[in-house]
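Sample entry was shown:

___
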Amino acid sequence: MLGSHEPVVFTHTVEGLLLALKGRLEGPLRAKLKAVGLDLDLRLESAYPNAQWQQMLLLGAEELFPNVPMPRAKWMLGERFISGYFQTNMGRALKGVLKMLGPARALERTSRNLASGSNFLHVEVERLADTDYRIKANDGGPHPEFLGAICHFGTMATGVKGLTTVVESRSGIAATYRARW
């Protein structure tokens, strides 16, 4: 049983990753995921510890992008994750809301949107100009590009043109991103 204060990600977040890994979940990856606590022969748990989640992300990035440096592989996994997540019930609802909000309001809601996927991720969004935002996350993980890609491709769902999102800085696992269009 998970402790009430243990950092966890929720089922629909793991479902998004599994959809990103579609077509690769048999063979060696299946066994590797089971070894880190994700047994695909069983029903998904309601939540998974963040440490396990980080291992799942690493395995997914290694499987999908074996010859790509890990920071870039995590960005590319983040793009596939958003695509998969938008196929879940929760993701379909969020995508509809994002389209209605537009990029500025969607970014301003980033904290709320990301909070639905875990119990530990805290995000502050600072509007620097009409089309320039700084996003500070308390936990960007060991490779903050994954979360940066989630912010980027989630915002892209609004229909925004010319969006760039970069990891501006990091301190330990905390990360700061810059999104502009």
User: Anything to note?
Assistant: The mean pLDDT is 95.
